[in-house]
Write a structure and sequence with these properties.
Elements lengths: L1 H15 L13 E2 L6 E2 L7 H11 L8 H14 L4 H5 L11 H4 L1 H4 L8 H15 L7
Antiparallel strand pairs: 1-2
Helix pairs in contact: 3-7
């Protein structure tokens, strides 16, 4: 499970930097409409403006501030697949990195390990609306 999580973070980092972790030098990449970013899949081009907006307006110009720390914590907690609703039914696990903490923030952020994540969820909502992406994509 730890390896899957590490692989997810590496893949996400590669996408956000414009390179696919699986891309070989001979693979075809597309130039995004902004004219400065490349992606292995044109659908990923929508994520570059989101990345830039997050870096500038949430992460204080790309610095490792409290919002960056809490965003990483939110991503981790969403990805480790713990669902109190399923746990109550005797089932351990959940949907993985599906954005459920943000979707069901009124429930999920009251679960003990997620306490305090409600603040970063609310700080991220305007970015979701501004860039028209789903919480799982964020």
């Amino acid at each position: 499970m730890a390896f899957k999580l590490l692989a997810s973070f590496v893949t996400l980092a590669a996408i956000l930097h414009g390179f696919s972790a699986a891309a070989a030098p001979s693979d075809t990449r597309v130039l995004c409409p902004d004219g400065r970013n490349f992606a292995s899949n044109a659908a990923c081009c929508a994520l570059f403006p989101l990345r830039d907006d997050l870096q500038k307006n949430l992460f204080d110009g790309g610095r490792c501030n409290e919002e960056a720390h809490e965003s990483l914590r939110l991503t981790f907690h969403d990805a480790i697949a713990i669902s109190p609703a399923l746990e109550a039914q005797g089932i351990f696990g959940g949907g993985g990195a599906d954005g459920s903490i943000a979707i069901f923030s009124h429930i999920e952020t009251s679960f003990h390990p997620n306490i305090g994540l409600d603040e970063v969820v609310e700080k991220q909502r305007p970015f979701l609306e501004r860039h028209n992406v789903g919480v799982a994509d964020l």
